[in-house]
Task: structure prediction
Amino acid sequence: MAGYKEPGLEARRAAAASAREQALAKLKARAPLDPAAQAERIAAAEAREKIQAEKRALLAAKKAQELAEKAERAAKVAPALTEAERKAARDAKYAARKARKK
Result:
């Protein structure tokens, strides 16, 4: 029994050409697209895209509203500190850090 023989360049080239011809024949044998069915698919895709765009807009509006509510709550909870109060808080933190280092 003979062992496996590596196909030569011409054999590989012929196999590739035959595969290409078969693929082209298969592609040409396909039925042409029906314009009505294609238009229907395009319309369905556009409808889906419109629905998704509406959902995205609703989610964006909801998120913006939540952020506005959160900012409003934060403004109500923490009154604005004066410059002197901020400086006193910063100095207290600095003093506490110095005390811990000793």
Notes: The mean pLDDT is 91. The radius of gyration is 36 Å. Residues 35-77 form the longest helix (43 residues).
